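Task: sequence design from structure.
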């Protein structure tokens, strides 16, 4: 039977055009399994603007949704489950050029498996994923175990990505949960979601963009991966107990802005337990880094980039083998302002902060207390830098096994400046209980209006370089 969906009242065409009215049929409500035996059958029958309602149950399907503007709505992620492993296999859902305001809501996609996009593959379009779960899906040949996004703009709201896995070449930590594909110019707005237990929580790859707000990354093999020209803005987000690649990993030309966020208990096998950024830009504002660890840069690692760290706290972070218990900075331009470094530790140099290798760094209005270094610079170390400037800082109760209980400056090319700072009750095992300046000193040395007292075994030690 052919069902006529147009209104029963006849209206002149000219009136429809002039009055801005639509001849489109009223949206229909299609129900599974009440009216349609499968989700695929309902999607195939639906027209633009329709809603497909899916009752509680497990649906052994691999669904293809092309082009239509629909709403696919379950009764809750714990109730309505798409699991292709019990039937045809493959991924749970493929969405091709699905336009806004289409949405998937209240559904679990579980046990999907495909070469890429094990749970869901989104190709083009601009759909929304809302209040849904993506669990135990596998991409067998690349990134994107839970959801893979290609040339699309997506909104992810109130979703959970749990125990998804990406395998094969290029997978690594890149988006076991959610992956924005390289060179696809994809964009994602991720809100109030959870990434837990994935082989990499989320990844934004080459020339993609993402905003992440109010989200939790926990116990992933790397929380958030930003790579090769991708740009990510992170707000009000927590990175907790991620491992292998730490909390946030931006190893190659990623641009990262993080504000009002927590990095706690993360571990990196190399550098930047909480966060690592290299060859891009990094802005960290009003964040807390606590109890993170790495070989160097226990809390935060910044290498070969332009960076700023503002109004942030670093507490109890550890560099297990090298320097920078709280922060490690090497090669580039960095500003640290209004920060607090408390009880951090480094195996070698810079219990609180280590600055190294051809960098210009300014640290101001910052407190260093109770930090420890296995070699030099209990509070802070600067070694072989182009320039270091310390302004209005406080160093107290820091310890170094070697030199510079409060501060160690070992070699600089252009300048080393310390002004209006307080250095008290620091201890060095060798020399310079408060401040040690040594090594090659080619540029300007300026010490202005500092208070340096009650340090052990001495206050200031400057190696004789004909100054």
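Answer:
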């Amino acid at each position: 039977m052919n069902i006529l969906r147009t209104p029963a009242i006849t209206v002149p065409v000219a009136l429809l055009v002039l009055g801005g009215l639509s001849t489109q049929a009223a949206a229909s409500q299609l129900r599974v399994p009440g009216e349609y035996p499968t989700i695929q059958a309902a999607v195939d029958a639906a027209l633009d603007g329709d809603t497909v309602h899916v009752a509680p149950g497990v649906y052994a399907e691999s669904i293809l949704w092309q082009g239509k503007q629909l709403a696919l709505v379950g009764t809750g992620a714990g109730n309505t489950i798409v699991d292709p492993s019990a039937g045809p296999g493959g991924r749970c859902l493929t969405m091709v050029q699905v336009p806004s305001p289409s949405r998937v809501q209240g559904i679990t996609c579980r046990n999907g498996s495909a070469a890429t996009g094990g749970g869901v593959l989104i190709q083009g379009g601009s759909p929304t994923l809302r209040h849904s779960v993506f669990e135990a899906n596998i991409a067998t040949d690349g990134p994107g175990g839970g959801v893979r996004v290609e040339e699309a703009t997506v909104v992810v709201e109130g979703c959970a990505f749990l125990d998804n896995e990406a395998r094969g070449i290029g997978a690594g930590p890149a988006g076991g949960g959610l992956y924005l594909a390289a060179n696809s110019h994809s964009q994602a707005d991720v809100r109030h979601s959870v990434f837990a237990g994935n082989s990499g929580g989320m990844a934004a790859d080459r020339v993609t963009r993402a905003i992440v707000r109010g989200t939790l990354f926990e116990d992933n093999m790397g929380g958030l991966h930003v790579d090769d020209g991708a740009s990510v803005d992170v707000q009000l987000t927590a990175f907790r107990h991620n491992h292998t690649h730490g909390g946030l990993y931006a190893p190659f030309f990623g641009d990262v802005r993080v504000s009002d966020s927590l990095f706690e208990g993360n571990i990196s096998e190399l550098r930047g337990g909480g966060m690592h950024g290299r060859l891009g830009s990094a802005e960290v504002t009003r964040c807390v880094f606590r109890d993170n660890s790495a070989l160097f840069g226990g809390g935060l690692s910044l290498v070969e980039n332009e960076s700023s760290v503002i109004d942030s706290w670093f507490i109890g972070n550890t560099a297990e083998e090298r320097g920078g218990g709280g922060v490690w900075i090497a090669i580039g331009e960095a500003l640290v302002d209004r920060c607090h470094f408390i009880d951090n530790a480094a195996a070698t140099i810079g219990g609180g902060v280590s600055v190294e290798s051809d960098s210009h760094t300014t640290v101001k209005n910052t407190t260093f207390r109770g930090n420890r270094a296995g070699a030099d610079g209990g509070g802070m170390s600067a070694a072989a830098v182009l320039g270091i400037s310390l302004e209005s800082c406080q160093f107290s109760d820091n310890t170094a096994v070697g030199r510079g209980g409060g501060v160690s400056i070992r070699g600089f090319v252009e300048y080393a400046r310390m002004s209006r700072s307080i250095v008290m009750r620091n201890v060095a095992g060798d020399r310079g209980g408060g401040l040690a300046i040594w090594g090659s000193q080619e540029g300007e040395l300026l010490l202005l209006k500092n208070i340096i007292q009650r340090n052990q075994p001495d206050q200031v030690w400057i190696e004789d370089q004909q100054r």
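The chain has two domains: 27-245, 278-467.
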